[in-house]
Amino acid sequence: MKPEEIRKLDAYFKRTFQNPSLSVKARPRKDDSCELYVGDEFLGIIFKDEDDGDYNFSMAILDVDLD
Questions:
Q1: pTM score, two decimals?
Q2: Strand pairing partners for 33?
Q3: Side by side, which strands form the sheet with 33-38?
Q4: Which among 16, 39, 51, 58 is least buried, having the fewest CB atoms inside 10 angstroms?
């Protein structure tokens, strides 16, 4: 993703969830998506749908994390 898109997504997540610890970062060796973190903890991947311009956030929740 372009740096401008990443900046806009970063601001969106911080504003929407009222959490300045959230950060959107570029993915190494990938330009079709970016990653969302809270502090140093990876939360998920944000993909852009090139057909309609929307963004999709995907987050896996491991069973062991629920205990």
A1: 0.90
A2: 47
A3: 22-26, 33-38, 41-48, 55-58
A4: 51
Q: In terms of C-beta density within 10 A (0-12 exposed, 13-18 middle, 19 or more buried), how is residue 67 classed? A: exposed
Answer for the pair 46, 24: CB distance below 8 angstroms, yes or no.
Answer: yes
Q: Which residues partner with 48 through β-bridges?
A: 55
Between strands 33-38 and 41-48, the pairing is antiparallel
Residue 54 DSSP label: -
Q: Three-class SS of residue 22?
A: strand
Token pair listed for 21? 């610890």
The span from the CA of 52 to the CA of 25, in Å, is 22
Cα–Cα distance for residue pair 12/6, rounded to 1 Å: 10
